[in-house]
């Protein structure tokens, strides 16, 4: 891999690391994914930035529960939504 690449990855504690390929430690650690992307751009504006896709599982569960409640209150079959 080229040196002008960064990986943005979420840590177990919810913060984000900005790392070069095969690096032993992060170049930076930030609180949000957006801050991590900005930090990588500041370090090397010409670098390719690979961002880990992060899903908000709690939000997805909440939407599913809301849809289930709506289905019950309107009495629609599940296939209709």
Write a compact overview of the structure shown:
This is DUF2188 domain-containing protein. The protein has helices spanning 33-43, 57-74, and strands spanning 5-10, 16-19, 28-30, 48-51. The protein is α+β, with helices and mostly antiparallel strands and 81 residues long.
Question: Topology of this protein?
Answer:
Elements: E1 5-10, E2 16-19, E3 28-30, H1 33-43, E4 48-51, H2 57-74
Parallel strand pairs: 1-4
Antiparallel strand pairs: 1-2, 2-3
Strand fraction band?
A: 15-25%
Rg calc: 19 Å
Query: Helical region count?
Result: 2
Distance from first to last alpha carbon: 45 Å
In terms of structural class, how would the helical and strand content be classed? alpha+beta
Number of distinct beta strands? 4
**What profile does the largest beta sheet have?**
4 strands, mixed
Tell the overall outline: elongated
Low-confidence stretches: none
Give the overall pLDDT as a whole number: 81
Number of domains: 1
Sheet with the most strands: spatial strand order: 3-2-1-4
Order of helices and strands: EEEHEH
Q: How much helix is in the residues? A: 25-40%
Protein name: DUF2188 domain-containing protein
Biased composition (Basic and acidic residues): 1-14
Region (Disordered): 1-33
Organism: Bradyrhizobium niftali
């Amino acid at each position: 891999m080229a040196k002008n690449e960064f990986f943005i990855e979420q840590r177990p504690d919810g913060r984000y690391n900005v790392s070069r390929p095969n690096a032993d430690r992060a170049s930076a650690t930030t609180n949000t994914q957006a801050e991590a992307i900005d930090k990588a751009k500041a370090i090397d504006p010409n670098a390719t930035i690979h961002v880990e896709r992060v899903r908000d599982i709690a939000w997805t569960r909440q939407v599913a529960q809301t849809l289930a409640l709506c289905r019950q209150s309107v009495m629609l079959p599940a296939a209709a939504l």
